[in-house]
Amino acid sequence: MNRRSLLTHGVAVAAGLASRPANSAADPALRKEAEQVLKRAASYWRSKVARHGGYVYHYSLDLKQRWGEGEATPDQIWVQPPGTPAVGLAYLQAHAATRDPFYLDAATETAVALLHGQLQSGGWTNSVDFSPNNPKAPRYRNGKGNPRGRNQSSLDDGIGQTALQFLARADQAHGFKHPAIHEGATIAADALLKAQFPCGAFPQGWQGPVASHPALKASYPSYDWRTEGRVDNYWDYYTLNDGLAGTVSASLTTLNEVYKDEQYRKALMRLGDFLLLAQMPDPQPVWAQQYSYAMHPIWARRFEPAAVTGGESQDVLAVLMDLYRVSRDAKYLAPVPRALEYLKRSLLPDGRLARYYELKSNRPLYMTRSGRDYSLTYDDRDLPDHYGWKVASRLDRLQREYQALKAGEAPAPKPADAVALEPKVRRAIADLDAEGRWVSTFDAKQVGQFKLPVGTRYLASDLFNRNVALLSDYLGLK
């Protein structure tokens, strides 16, 4: 499973809630069929697939096996997208489109399940365990976990970000009158603000308010980055890994929209100021995945070296341009041209970008693996398949966005059009089986820890979420 697709879906659904399409009414007959199919699919997912009100990533067709990043126990649900909060956002989008209380009830059940796993530190880890007296359970805020368990709230892979966006939107859908949801969302939002370093950066995780460190400009280390400068607790340092800038900025934007509180906008601008500091100097004026407090690129996991990155750098550029749209402060556009030109020069022969480029030399950097050991290499012929070593280029789109902003153009997003959506809607309707399921088939192109024999049929939360969002968009075209 592509980790990037897992990361972004919950944010996409949240964006759909914030800006409903409003163009070209749906065909009445197709609209009625879409509404019926949406209800059948959601009813199956809610009544048959949910455990304790929550969800994981994938399911065997008989629902006897369930997988998150690994195989889940019967009492586990997953927070990381496309799990529990991403499904909850899909239910909320269906409710916004139809006003059917069924979907709000489903979202509320999902929110309550998510609240069970809220940590004392205010956020979430990647899964929630409902089994009683499990010694491996984290330290849950409701006291039902292990009081000596882990208390590390995580921003890895969009975990806390998607959970927070969902709870905020659920709080809004209830008119801020559901006490448990309102309390949980408020605690999580406050914890996120306290996890922001004074320089504007965020760690990958936290157990409490973060320490203060001087705000420094990014620079190359003077030591040998291959063997020196590694840290055991990389999650405590400044990170942009797995699109964190984009997902955290989306969370802060959501909080500002929902609660109309200036503190979230200020936190968003502080994040932007950190991104300005984190741009590396020439010859690689882009961004790293992980930084020390001295603002040198550092290692994270043993297959995540100190390097500049093609993926996170594109994410940062998109965030900077969004910040310019919000603030009209030209400082957020200033880093864009140099970064785009560098990334264009760094494209691989197949038109993609390497995930990692070696510091200063700019050679694409990869890993080979023997057992649990990883070795750095410049050779891309034997890459571990659990990780995305190359990323798609979004440079043409980013370049167009930059040119439009520089020219003073700020066109409104094109509204969804019923005629354009109809083929996809008809396909989603046709694909729903007699039991009310959208069934996926495992293919050889999928990467990640989730592995099945090619051709195996299974159920996927990601496909459910996307089709619910599609049908909801169509039904929202009044």
Question: How is this structure best summarized?
Answer:
It contains 13 helices and 16 strands.
Total beta-strand segments: 16
How far apart, in Å, are the first and last alpha carbons? Answer: 36 Å
Could you report the average pLDDT, rounded to the nearest whole number?
92
- Taking pLDDT < 50 over at least 5 consecutive residues as the criterion, the unreliable ranges are 1-11
- The neighbouring-strand order within the major sheet is 2-1-16-15
Q: What general form does the structure show?
A: globular
Helical content (DSSP H or I, runs of 4+): 40-55%
Descriptive key words:
16 strands; 478 residues; four-stranded antiparallel β-sheet; single chain; alpha+beta; 10% strand; disordered N terminus; 42% helix; globular
Question: What's the structural blueprint in terms of helices and strands?
Answer:
Elements (H helix, E strand, L loop, with lengths): L2 H16 L9 H22 L8 E3 L5 E2 L8 E3 L5 H15 L2 H16 L10 E3 L23 E2 L4 H15 L5 H16 L10 E2 L31 E2 L4 H16 L2 H17 L11 E2 L16 E2 H18 L8 H10 L7 E2 L1 E2 L6 E7 L2 E5 L12 E2 L3 H12 L11 H14 L7 E3 L15 E4 H15 L3
Antiparallel strand pairs: 1-2, 1-16, 3-4, 5-6, 7-8, 9-11, 10-14, 11-12, 12-13, 15-16
Fold and architecture overview:
The protein has 478 residues and is of the alpha+beta class. Helices cover 42% and strands 10% of the residues. The protein is built from 13 helices and 16 strands. It has a four-stranded antiparallel sheet with strand order 2-1-16-15. α2 (28-49) packs antiparallel against α13, α4 crosses α5 and α9 runs antiparallel to α10 (336-345). The longest helix is centred in the N-terminal third of the chain and has 22 residues, at 28-49. The radius of gyration is 22 Å and the shape is globular.
